[in-house]
Amino acid sequence: MKAAVLERRGVDGVIWRDFPDPVPAEGESVLRVTASSVNRVDLYMRDSGSGITHTLPQVMGVEAAGEIVEAAPGSGLEPGTKAILFSEAYCGRCRYCLAGDQPLCENVKIMGEHRHGGFADYIAMPSSCFFPLPNDADLVAAGALMTGHLTAWRMLFGKRALRPGESVLIVGIGGGVSAAALALAVRAGATVYATSRDEAKRARAVAAGAAGAFDSGGDWPVTVDVVVESVGPATWDRSVRALRPGGRLVVCGGTSGQTVELSLPRLFFKQIEIIGSTMGSYPEFAAVTGVVAAGLSVAVDEVFDRADYPAALDRLAAAGRRLAVLTNSPTERAESGLRSAGLRSCRLRAGAREAVRSSRIWRGSFPSGALAPRRGNRLGAASVCDGAGATPPLSSSATPGSPAASYYCKGSVRQ
Questions:
Q1: Which DSSP letter does residue 233 get?
Q2: For 216, which DSSP code?
Q3: Are 114 and 200 in the same domain?
Q4: CB contact at 8 A, 242 and 227
Q5: SS3 letters across 81-125
Q6: 27, 258, 285, 348: most buried by Cβ count inside 10 Å?
Q7: Regarding predicted confidence, which is higher, 357 or 316?
Q8: Predicted confidence (pLDDT) per residue in 103-156, tens digit
Q9: Of 326, 341, 356, which residue sits at a domain end?
Q10: Same-domain check for residues 140 and 209
């Protein structure tokens, strides 16, 4: 097969070349990749990779959507089915996995980081990582969904859920996570502000629903309940100052550096919370796909052929860029162009359903229909709190464990 292979560090270290086809281990299935998006972690792996256990040469790419070509026995997957990959292979055995909080898995293996990734003709992953899609699903949108939208979802609705009427400041708007956070927060009924050094990005944020956008290097004339932070030292102090008493700062990265200073009096006198966040769980991803199925768009900046992977990385590294998607299929490229794409809802595999049954997705009340599908309440396999804090029971439209099983929430979304 062909793959984007990291041979050595640096801009010249990634080569599109022949690479051995994946040999699935027990319990793994194989996806023929149609589309995958470029992410900041790809740049990090290319240029550093420090702190991430891996061996070169390695296939890059932390996202993938395409068609199942080989299904593990007993997995419930079927060859020929469209699917999106959950990029983190959780062990399912540690205390965090057993508690339904998979992002804290002690033995996680992430595609494109710890194991071969999605910028290839084929990829093998544990069958529990395959989320089947409808036949008419947009694979370009699916290829750009996982990392940005799931990270943003957990930041906003994870440990402390955003509530209608709260205010949010997104620091450094323009990337995949921040763009997804803006769309999700607006849809949840929050008042959203954004910062950027780029005037065009600020204008796009306002057009996308932000109540205001400010220069990241200037004054921010607002105080808010939640700050979404991914920049780090360059904006950290102002991010903390922008919080109201009792507010929370949720951080998922540090593009300007890895070390910050914090005023302890400001922390305890204002009683603010600082929450670290990365990626998300199986049921959180099911909720993300449900919201996208309800009409939330997935922003795609440009579509590249995967043989042009180095150019896509350079575009991501340049100022003013958002999501670039690499695809194998000329048809997908022709149909997609530059657009915001829709995606139909997906289903959880059997290995993830127990996590859904034991987990809450939304931990509070939300505005009527704000995050719900416009018709009915089908969210794939998502379990949604009913606003009073109770998770309603799930019912199945097929025998549990069967590949056609889709789950519905009873009375969980008020239209």
A1: T
A2: T
A3: no
A4: yes
A5: CEEEECCEECCCCCHHHHCCCHHHCCCCEEECCCECCCCECEEEE
A6: 285
A7: 316
A8: 999 999 999 888 999 999 999 999 999 999 988 888 998 998 988 899 999 999
A9: 341
A10: no
- Given a cut of 50, whether residue 198 has pLDDT beyond it is yes
Q: How far apart are CA 193 and CA 212, in angstroms?
A: 5
**pLDDT > 90 in the chain, percent:** 52
Does 298 have pLDDT greater than 50?
yes
What is the pLDDT, as a whole number, of residue 402?
28
Neighbours of 287 (CB within 10 A): 28
Mean pLDDT of the chain: 78
What single-letter DSSP state applies at residue 275?
Answer: E
Mean pLDDT, range 10-38, rounded to an integer = 92
The string of pLDDT tens digits covering residues 219-249 is 999 999 999 999 999 999 999 999 999 999 9
Stated pTM of the model = 0.78
Q: What angle do CA 339, 342, 343 make, to 5 degrees?
A: 140
197 within domain boundaries: yes
Question: Strands, DSSP E only, in 295-409?
Answer: 298-300, 302-305, 324-327, 339-341, 394-396, 407-409
54 and 200 belong to one structural domain: no
Q: With contact defined as beta carbons under 8 Å apart, do 250 and 227 qualify?
A: yes
302-329 confidence digits (pLDDT tens): 888 888 888 888 887 775 455 567 777 5
Query: How far apart, in whole angstroms, are the C-alpha atoms of residue 237 and residue 287?
Result: 33
Strands of 203-332 (E only): list them. 212-215, 224-229, 243-251, 273-276, 298-300, 302-305, 324-327
* Element of type H or E holding 18: strand 14-18
Query: 225 lies in which domain range?
Result: 159-274
From 271, 176, 179, select the one nearest 225 (Cα to Cα). Answer: 271
**Cα 128 to Cα 354: distance, rounded to the nearest angstrom:** 11
Q: Are residues 22 and 82 in the same domain?
A: yes
Looking at the fold, whether 181 and 261 belong to one and the same domain comes out as: yes
Instruction: Please state, in angstroms and as integers, the Cα–Cα distance from residue 330 to each residue in 229, 314, 368, following that order.
Output: 37, 22, 41
Map tokens 């299929």 to a residue: 329
Rounded Cα distance, 250 and 199, in Å: 24
Q: For 21-75, where are the alpha helices, taking DSSP H only? A: 40-47
- What is the tally of structural domains in the chain? 2
Q: Out of 341, 356, 371, pick the residue that ends a domain.
A: 341
Q: Does one domain contain both 116 and 87?
A: yes
Q: Which position has the higher pLDDT, 334 or 358?
A: 334
- The answer to whether residues 108 and 198 belong to one domain is no
